[in-house]
Amino acid sequence: MRRSFTFLLCPTAKQAAALAACLEEHRQLYNAALEHRRTAYRKAGVSIRYGDQSGELKHIRSGDPGGQARWSFSSQQATLRRLDKAFAAFFTRVRDSRTPGFPRFKGRGRFDTVTWPKDGDDCRWDSQPEHPTATYVRLQGVGHVRVHRHRPVKGRVKTISVKREGSRWYVILSCDEVPAQPLPATGAVAGIDLGVVSLVTTSDGGYIGNPRHLAASADRLAAAQRDLARKQRGSARRRKAAARVAALHATVRRQRLDHAHKMALALVRDYDVIVHEALRVANMARSASGTLERPGRGVAAKSGLNRSILDAGWGVFLAVLADKAESAGRELIAVNPADTSRTCAECGHVAKENRLIQAAFACTACGHAAHADVNAAVNIVRAGLALREAAQAA
């Protein structure tokens, strides 16, 4: 199995400056490579590939000994591959008749990660193994940077990435051959319904609350954003105010991720088979239809619902649940969410009148009454078990 491990870096002031310079040089390399591709195609109709640009790296480094030549050749190749992947995704969207989204230049603050593709190639994890208490990672041009390693690293370190989030630096290890950690069988099966009131409702009537991390920080965020709006653009005070806003958003993101890990771990410990809806969160959180002249109906209500959906972090939770289920040897099944909240779990009658309010379900055909989320979770687990039986029969 492949897993990633993220640790907080503790650089000195000099190392932090070197990391910032490394990030900036890689951003400039990315933008220069993008401009190379655009200009070559616009003026000569020539398509530039990764191999062409990678071959030019040697000349770029020799002409800039105090800049690009300071950093790892392999990490610069990884940055060029990143651009190549952006173009590949662009052409895929064009072929699929989706909104293309041509690759854009990266401004300051829009390029926050540098990757070293192989441990030992201009980088080294645990570079001072003889140190009795601390762990270090060595990066070319930066040196041995201390790492706050709060848990053991398992498997074989494949790639090393450094990421900046606000004023913090993190090292991300991508590891192969990570051993699975199967949990003992419980024999239990559950369907889960995701919501904004209760974040998770199980088919056996269990609830996991929604802590609403963004809503809890809304007042502090609003004050920080008002303070930011009053600062003059380009000033040092504006940069400090922007850093405070970014720090608050980062805190909310970490709280949401921590809660998702705890919820997912509780579920995989209790159930052998977990069934959930195959939700498309990005589509569900789209703005209400309309234009500036005719904004449409229910725009304010849809905006509030979108904010609640994104605050709940359904996508983050499902991704974490999939990883933990794989590691624990649990089975995860995704089902079509269509009509799961409108179908009676007793008689199978489907009608939107069955659920006139958020919390209560009352079947108009047989009179069955239940909590709406529990009723939906029962329908979800039945659909998942039917899919499972059909797959086993095939």
TrEMBL record:
Q: Where is the signal peptide?
A: none
Which domain of life does the UniProt lineage start with? Bacteria
Residue ranges of the Cas12f1-like TNB domain?
314-380
Molecular function GO terms recorded:
DNA binding; metal ion binding
Write out the GO biological process terms. DNA recombination; transposition
Q: Where does the record place the Transposase putative helix-turn-helix domain? A: 1-43
Q: Where is the Probable transposase IS891/IS1136/IS1341 domain?
A: 179-287
One Pfam short name: HTH_OrfB_IS605
- Alphabetical list of InterPro entries matching this protein: Cas12f1-like_TNB, RNA-guided_DNA_endo/Transpos, Transposase, Transposase_put_HTH
Task: Keyword check for Amino-acid biosynthesis, yes or no.
Answer: no
Which controlled-vocabulary keywords does the entry list? DNA recombination, DNA-binding, Metal-binding, Transposition, Zinc
- Give the UniProt family note: In the N-terminal section; belongs to the transposase 2 family.
Cross-referenced NCBIfam families: guided_TnpB
Protein name, per record: Transposase
**Species lineage:** Bacteria, Bacillati, Actinomycetota, Actinomycetes, Streptosporangiales
